[in-house]
Amino acid sequence: MAAKEIIPGCAVCPKPHFYDTEGPFLLPCLHSVCENCLKYENDKTLFCSSCQETFPKASFPIDAVTRKKTLLFTLAHNSNELLCTNKDDGNQAMSWCQECEAFLCEHCHVAHGDMKATRKHKVILVQDLTNCPQTLKCMSYCGQHAQHPVTLYDSTCNVPLCAMCVLAEHTSCKTEDLDTAWETRQSFLEDKEVALRAKLGRLQECRTLQEDIGQRLKPQQEAVEEVIRCTFQKLHLMLDQREIELKTEIEESTKFLTERSDHQLVTLQSEVDKLTVNLEFIQMSTLLLNPVEHFAMKDVMDKRITVASESEIPRISTQEYAIALSTDGLHGFQQQISSLGALMASRIRSDVVVTDSRGTSHIVQIPSLRLDKTSLNTDQVRIRDDEFLTHGKQLQRGRSPGSFRKYSGTVSSHPLTLQHLQYWEVKVFLELLQNPGMLLLFETGVCVHATIDDGVTVCSNVHSFVMFAALCDVHGGICVQSRKHGRNTRCLQHVVQNTVGASSELCYGFLFNPMEGSVRIVDVRSECVEIEHMEDMETNVEYWPVFGVFNGHLAKVHMSVVSGRSVKFGEVKKRWIQDIFG
C-alpha cells in the first residue's frame, strides 16, 4: 500500500497512474489526468485539484514525463507488476529493450538475443533500470512509417517527422535536424529554468518569512490572551467591589426606610386609637346619658371632637420608600465593554482626517475587510488564492455551518460599525462571454445579514443598498445600476459593450455614513467622480458589505475588496469627502 501511494496520481480523481494503461494526459497546468477522467461523458470540464483550475475537455497530449516517472516508481517498488509487452503473453517482465522500447519476459529475452535483427539491441535487466533511468530515452519511430526513425523537426507545423513524412506531406515546410532543434529547445529550457529557479528562490524567501510570521502568531496570541485575562480580572474585581458597595448601600437604605416606616406606623396607630376612643365615647353618651347629663359635658366633648375632626391625616407617599438602582451610564458602559480591546489583528484600519470649509475635522475609518470564506456559498462561487471572488465550486471538505445556501457570493469578514464614517473599495474584472439578456453579472454594496440568504441575489431585498451590472435598455450595453430597498433601479454608468469578448476593469469606492444613514459610491478610476448617493438607511441596524458574482456562463467576473492599509487615500479622495461636508 505504501508503494502505491508514492506513484504519481491523476489530478482530477485522484487515483494513482499505472504504467500498463494508456496515458496519462497532460493538462495545460502541467498536471496529469487519467484516461477514465478524460473520457467520462457526464463532465464537460476537468477540475484540477492541485492548482484549483478548470479546463474544457480537449485532445490533450500524452504526459510522457509522468508516464516515465510512473514507470520508475513501479520499477523501484512494484517491479513484479510489469508484464511482457513484446508478445503480451501475460508473463512477468525480465528485461527492457531500449531499441524496441518493450519489456521482455524470460522467453522473449532469450529469443531477442538469438534473432539476428535484434541480437545487437541494448537490453537491460529490470532490476538495473532504476540505476540508469537515461536508458528509458529510446529512439522514436514514426507512427505512419514504422521502420523509419524520427530524425527531423518541422518548425512550420511544430512536429517531429521522419524522412518519409517530409517527402510525402511536408515538402513545403521548414525542417531541420531533430538534434539541432533539440539543442535549441534545451537552451531555451535552460534559460527558463534559470529564471524560474531565481523566482523560486524569491518565493521560498517569502515563504520562510511567512512561516516565521506564522510561528510568531502563537506567542502573540498567548501574550494577548494574558492581557485579556489580566484586564478582565481587574474588571471582575472592580465589578465585584462595586457590587459589594451597592449591596451595602441598599442594606443601609432599607434599614433607614424600615425604621422610618415603623415610626410612622406607630404615629398612625396612635391617631387611630384616639379616634376610636372618641367614637366609642360619643356612642355611649348617646346611649346612656339623659340631656341634662350630656349638656353638662358638652364643652369638653365638643373641644375634643373638633380637634380630632380637624387634625390632618398624614400623607403616605410610596415614592419616599421606593428602592431602585440607577442605571445612568449603563448603556454607555455596555458599549465600552463591547468595544473593549478591539482586536487589531482582524480589524486593522487606517484613519483619515479631512477638514471641511468650516474648519471641522471628520475622521474616516478604513477598516480591514476581507472576503469571508466561512459564509461563502461554496457550491456556486470560490475565493482564489489571490483573494479574488469568482465563479466555480470551492474545493473543501464539507460546507461551513454558517455558509450561505442560496446567495451566490459572500460577505465581509465583519460588519460595519455604527459610530464612524467608513470607506472601502471593490475591484472588478468583467469579460463578456455571451449576451446576458436581463440576468445579473455581479453586485456589491451593503445589506442586513439576516436577509442576505433569502435568494441568489440581494438587489431585490428591502434591506439592501447595492450596485449591480446587467444589460441596460437605455444604452444597449452592460451598465452598472443601483437599487435600494429592492426597488427603483437607476443606471449609473455604461461600462462594457454588449459584444462577446468585451472586457473592462472597474474600481468603486464606498463611503458608509451610519449617522446619516447613507452610502455614497465613487468611481475611483475616473478621478473619484461620485456616481450614486443612497439614503434612507436604518441608523440602528448593522450592515454588512456583500459581494456576489452570477451566471458564469455569460461572463467572466473576478471581484476583490481593497481596504485597510491597501487603500491609497490621496488628495483627490480627500477633496471628494471635503466637498460632501461643504
Largest sheet: 7 strands, mixed
The share of residues in helices is: 25-40%
Q: What is the class of the largest domain in the CATH system?
A: Mainly Beta
Binned strand content: 15-25%
Distance between the first and last residues' Cα:
74 Å
Low-confidence stretches: 1-5
Please tell me about this protein's structure.
The protein is 33% helix and 23% strand. A hairpin with a 4-residue loop joins β8 and β9 (159-161). It is built from 11 helices and 25 strands. The model is unreliable at 1-5 (pLDDT under 50). The longest helix is centred in the middle third of the chain and has 111 residues, at 178-288. The two termini are 74 Å apart. The chain is an alpha+beta fold and 582 residues long. The strands form 7 sheets. Strands 11, 12, 16, 21, 22, 23 and 25 form a 7-stranded mixed β-sheet that branches. The protein has 3 domains: 2-138, Zinc/RING finger domain, C3HC4 (zinc finger) (Herpes Virus-1, 2-Layer Sandwich), CATH 3.30.40; 201-313, no CATH class; 350-581, SPRY domain (Jelly Rolls), CATH 2.60.120.920.
